[in-house]
Amino acid sequence: MLDVIIKQLLPIPLEVHLQCHPGEMLALVGPSGSGKTTVLRCIAGLHHPEQGLIRSHKTTWFDTNHMINYSPQQRRVGMVFQNYALFPHLNVMQNILLAMPTPRKNIARTLLNQVHLNGLETRYPSQLSGGQQQRVALARALAREPEVLLLDEPFSAVDKVTRRKLYLELHALRRQLSMPIILVTHDLDEAAMLADQMCVIHQGNTLQQGPVEEVFNRPHSLNVARLTDARNVLEGQIVMVDGQKKLQWFEQQLDIADTDFAVGSHVYWIISPSKILLHQRRRPSRGEHENPVQAIIIDMITLRGITTVLMKVTGNNDLLLQMDIPEHVVQRNQLQRGEHIGLSLLQNAIHLIEQ
């Protein structure tokens, strides 16, 4: 396991603690300037924080308490940069051989095969597309036989079509890798698609680490919810009704899962747009009796088969909700702007956050 604790005041404040298990990909997300790339540089030995501990498996690479500081060469780290960082005067094969502890062409060819670059061994970086250069950079990182693989926004410099191909290739390649992998990205969809765990960093501080779905759907704070682009962030109050705690949301009293919030507490609450259930006209479901809500469709937008429905909840408020449903569900139910629809806010999908 990779265990990282970093504390410093300069050049940017950092107080970061993260862990990544072998075979797992951890996505570091957060706004520009939050310290994500600096964390990677600390792990690789390219930057020395004022205080900290970096341990890979059972080997301590950095420990300010015991004056341990392995050089970048001593740390078995493979790193892929967003600008590729290939040697322009070396061809593909030479770039990979240079990174190997013991240069072996047969192993280099195996790596090239893994990243789908067969037959390009003698080409130079200037003769390759952006996607091909990034594949070479990944093969070179793996040529170091690393204990840890670091990916610093590796897809930001390629077009969207190439990026999606690289996503699929990296996802397939991961099955053959047993080391911890840390991915720095600004793209939340990229993190959701590729990573097992997500760590949210803001202003140099670790706010939350956990499984991707948990971070998205159950953020620890309003700040995490905003940084992960939570779209239905609302306010309510915990009330007691017939011996059960409920969420008072304007005139609605919503069923919620067991909570430690005291009666009378004012809370934020969120529900993922994908967790809102549409009441279908033709085939009603048992879920329609769970926190039913009436709404009017304000607008709809479809992207790659998923339709986001923007709705105004009927009642004495002007609050809007977003619901994500497959395009075929929109067509089957003949949904249109201005139409009244029924929804259910599923009890287990409602997440409460302290105000």
UniProtKB/TrEMBL annotation:
PANTHER family: SPERMIDINE/PUTRESCINE IMPORT ATP-BINDING PROTEIN POTA (PTHR42781), SPERMIDINE_PUTRESCINE IMPORT ATP-BINDING PROTEIN POTA (PTHR42781:SF4). InterPro entries: AAA+_ATPase, ABC_SmlMolc_Importer, ABC_transporter-like_ATP-bd, ABC_transporter-like_CS, Mo/tungstate-bd_C_term_dom, P-loop_NTPase. One of its GO terms (molecular function) is ATP hydrolysis activity. This is ABC transporter-like protein. It comes from the Bacteria. Pfam families: ABC_tran.
